[in-house]
Each structure stands twice: as structure tokens, then as C-alpha cells.
Specification:
Blueprint lengths: L2 E7 L15 E6 L5 E7 L3 E7 L2 E13 L4 E2 L5 E13 L9 E12 L3 E8 L2 E24 L5 E7 L10 E5 L8 E2 L3 E5 L2 E8 L8 E4 L4 E5 L4 E7 L5 E7 L4 E8 L2 E7 L10 H5 L14 E4 L19 H13 L4 E4 L4 E2 L2 E5 L18 H11 L2 E7 H6 L1 H11 L3 E5 L6 H16 L3 E4 L8 H4 L3 E4 L7 H4 L5 H4 L21 E2 L13 E2 L2 H10 L4 E4 L3 H5 L2 H8 L7 E8 L3 E8 L2 E8 L4 E6 L8 E8 L10 E8 L4 E6 L4 E8 L2
Parallel strand pairs: 22-23, 22-32, 23-26, 26-27, 27-28, 28-29, 30-31
Antiparallel strand pairs: 1-7, 2-3, 3-4, 4-5, 5-6, 5-10, 7-8, 8-9, 9-10, 10-17, 10-20, 10-21, 11-12, 11-13, 11-14, 14-15, 15-21, 16-17, 18-19, 24-25, 33-34, 34-35, 35-40, 36-39, 37-38, 37-40
Helix pairs in contact: 2-3
Length: 667
Amino acid sequence: MKYKINFILGIVFLTNVIIAKAQTKLYQLLSPDTKIALNISAGATLTYSVNYNKKQVLLPSKLSVSLGDGKILGVNNKVEKILKRSVEQDIKPQYGMAANYKDVYNEIAIKFKGNYEVIFRVFNNGVAYRFKTALPGRIKVNEEQINYQLTADAEAWIQTTNSFQFSYEEQFFKKKISSLIGKPIASLPFVTESNGIKVAITESDLLDYPGYYLTYAGNNTLKGISPKFILKDTTGGQDNFNKLSLLDADYIAETEGTRDFPWRLMILEQNDKDLLYNNLVYLLASESKIEDTSWIKPGKVSWDWWNANNLTGVDFKSGFNTATYKYFIDFAAENKLEYIMMDEGWSDQFDLLKVNDGSVVTSGTTALSGTLDMPYLFNYAKQKGVGIILWCVWHTLDRQMIEALDQFQKWGVKGVKVDFMNRDDQTVVRFYERLAKEAAKRKMIIDFHAAYKPTGLERTYPNILNFEAVQGLEWNKFSDVDILTQATILPFTRMLAGPMDYTPGGLYNSNLLDYRKSFFRPMTLGTRCNQLAMFTMYYAPFEMLADAPTAYQKEPEILAYLAAMPNTWDETIPLEGKIGDHAVIARRKGSTWHIAGLNNWTGKNVKIKFDFLDAGDYQATIFSDGINANRIGSDYKKTTQKIDKASSLELQMANGGGFAIKLEKIK
């Protein structure tokens, strides 16, 4: 690891100026490239402001933490000492969007009288701060004051909710920040603009603490708001899969008095395109707490639920039965897919020790159609080198965690897909970490669905491979909403937080006029190439192939492309993009590049320059929208040609279209 840290005590450099005036102390911290200036004022209140290229992006904004004993951290501040350091290091993630992340920042830690400090970091593309306390015993946190005073009532890409209990699958809409007066509130990441600079607000290292949302406080100011600690809840919601609050406390957290609070992060970029690749949430998260990570295996998954276990051309009745999952296992093995999923319906949803014998009925799921011989299936999967992932209702797994995971381990389960949390209060955040620890003890991976946005937990517990927190392809089963328009918003918004389980790969492709929702034979909005592009565009270390094995087997070109597709990367380069319009990205695995373009409902041409390539020739395999793709979504063409770094390529994306390119080095 390349590692360089410079520690400087006290008052250092010209970038750290202290002025004694009415007991207020002022500090300035610059980014390593000096483009970002962070200004801190510590006196009666604690505020910070931010400039980018000498343009004000954030006006002085207050920060504090109010405790249950009446103490407020961040008011009447008396600085005891400061510690400033510069860090330049290479972080090699267990898996990621690149083999190496550059972690370069300047930091100032300001220690105040009262046994707390605030740490600020300035990167070349963002600013973050966190509180750190050294208080005795346990404490209650009534409120954390988080404010962002922008330079104007700017437009933002906003995902809203009227409640702290929701699935994090709402759409992003472009609205003024002032639209957040009262309710609804906005979830994170929150992308807006201030003085011409792109600003994305989110958080990292969320442990034993609730997440937060944004509301409008007037005067161009966004204010953070967190769910209260839940004292009493009850089962409810969809099929009783949720836990609904009956009684909230008057505080947001009860926690250890000596701790690090979550990082509050502002990502700053000059262009939309640059939002396509950002790893600050990961870099700010705590390092791995799992010592041996050699068993953790990202991969692709043959999924059952989206296609409703519908197999064609087979000599058995498909559904929840041994023959169906044996077919899924064979399909995965033949195409070198690492996993299959046994989703909702394999068990009694409220007793994970009871395999479904046909007596369990849930709305909208496939009939059992026989019996499930779990020991046989796990033994067969092991022989074929395929892992099986089991779906669980979160509160059932929470209640039965030890005994259920022990049973899963005996069977040979490789991981769990945990669903329907629909919350990010402190209790649920604790559940994530508790499950990550227990699953790691048994060498199991995790995929969280109906989950809150990622906050870097996949670094701390790398057995957590993916998070949903997105209006993904499943919505085509039960909704008429236009999810394709979101496809060109998500790479710039939701993807800033971390891995995203969108579950692409549907082959029944349609335009807006032909589309209809169907639970048992779902369609996708947009073209075939739009679906293919998502496998490169959306970062997913645990990647579902949504359609049925027999659907892919009828499309051998598509199957061969997807089966060989990586889902972790050695390098990522954003090429072009505009939020809500289109996005083009390049990702490398070894010497092979994958390039993808996603489009909205307006057709357009894009020109790709390959100057990022190494010297030498590449064989390009190009999947692009067919001439009739605007009418027939499944129409595509596959072409091949030689490419080198001096080449350029112009492609036309259909309405709701896209493209996918594979570049293989010619030796």
C-alpha cells in the first residue's frame, strides 16, 4: 500500500488561519488540489462554509448535536487543540468499481472542551465532517443539527417520502429545494446545484445510529431530520412483512458515549458526467471488521422471482419444486453463474425452519407445484459448483437469526437476500450490522432489499454484496409507472451511495405504447440494448439475471454476452452524460473493456472516443439498437470491428435505447 500521512499539531500552513475575535476562532482547510476551500467558525456556534474555485457553494451552516442530558455539542465552543494532517494512500477494496481507490485529503480535527471533537476532511471532489465523542457510559441523542445553506433556491433531483417507513423505491423528480417545506421529506443521496457546481449530499459510516433526510428550513437552507428511536412496533404492511412503529421515543439514538458519529458528506463536481464515478462514501467508511475475506465471492445470480419460475419447453410443471430449481442450478453451472436465488415462497415467511409444503399462501407468488427437497438441492448445487441464496423476511430472520443461520449453514447456503426492512431508524441499522457479523461467522453473503441507501457498510462488512434502495425492474411486474426515465437519473444520484441491485436482464422489451404490467410474464420498458447496458452502467457485485433460464437459452448471443460479463471492475471512466438524459461509461476488467450507454425516451447519437485505451488493437463486439427498436423493443444488431485508441465510433440510441460494447485486446 502506498501510504503517506503528515501530522501537524497546532496552527499550521497559511491555509489554517486563527483569528481571536469575541472568542470565535476561524480555520481554513484547502483540498489537496486547492480548488475547494473549507472555512470553519467556532464560537457561540459552530459553522462551516465551502468555496469551489473561489465560488461560494455553501454559506455558513450550523452543526451541533443535542444530547438527552441537555448538553449541546457545537455551541459555546472552547477549542482545546487542533490536529491537522494530509493523507495520500491507495485503498485496494475487496471488490469495487476499480482495483485501487485513491484516498487523498486534508483533515483538521478540532477538539473542544467537553470531551468532543469535530473532524473535517476536504477531498478534491468533496467535503465531509463528523462528530466524535469521549463521554462516559451511554448517551441519548435528541437531535443532530445538520444544515446546508445553498446560494439559491436551486433545482434538485429529489426522491421524496411522507414517512420514515418506506421502501426507498420512489422516483427522483426535478424540483426546487423549497418544495420540501413540511412534508414530504427527501431521502439521500440528494443532488442539486449551487453557484454552478454540482452538489450531492449523503452520508457514510452509519453504525448504531439512524439515517437522515432533508427538509426545507427557508433561506435556501436544507435541514437534516432523522427518525426517532422506536420504542414499540408491530408487524404490518405488505403481507405483514414490515414492522410498523406504534410508539416513538423523544430521541433519535441511545448509544455509547465514546464513539464516532456518521460522516456528513457533500460531493462537489463541475459536470454531471463526473458524478458517474465517485467512491467517497466507500473511502469514508470504517475498514473491514472481517479478518478473513477470502471466501467472499461476488457474482451473478439466476433469479426466480421476477420471471415467476416460468420455464418453457420442459417436461415438468415449473414452480416451487425440486425439478425447477434443479433446472436453475444446471443453467447456472452451464453458464458459469455463481449463484441461484430461491426467493419468496421457499419457506413459511414467518418460520424459516419450515420449508414450504404447499400450505403457505402469499399474494402473487408462484404455486408450489410439488415439493422442495432442500438437502438434495443443496447437495446437487454443491456438485455443480453453484451457490444457493435464500430469501428471508427481515423480522423473521431477526427473531430466528441464530437458529435459522445455523440451519442454513448445515444445508450449505451461501447467502441470504433479506427483504422488507423499509426503515433506517437505529434499530434497523443495528440489525444490518448484527446480521453482517453473524452471516460472516458462517461464511454467508448478504443482499439487502427494501433497504435504505448504502453508507459504506460493504467496506466494513464486505460480505454485504448489494443493496436495493431503487425502483428497479421488479416494478414492471406490478406497476404502470415509467421506470425507464429513471434509468438515466440513477447513475448520477442513487449510484453515488454505492452498489445497486436493480436486477436487470428482462428480454420481453417494449416501448411506452405496448407496455403493460404483468406479474407472471413481465415486460421491460425500453430496448433490449437498454437492458444490456445496465449490466455495465449499474455497479452490482451481486448481479441478478432477471429473466428465466429458458428465455435466455432462446437468445444465445445475449446469454453468452451476459454470462461472461464481469460485475466487479479494475477501472472506471465516465465518458459523458447529463442527468435524466443519457449516460455513457467505460469499465475495465483485466485487459477487457466494457462500454455502455443508457438513453431516455428521446433518440440521440453519441460519439465515443477510445483515447483511454492502451496501445494496440482491440476486437469490439457491439450490441446496438436495431433499426426497428423504436417499435419493437427487442430489435438489436450485433456487429464486430477492430478498434484502437485513435478510433472513434458513432452510435444511434433509440427512444429508450442504449448500447453495450465489449473490447477484447488482440494479442
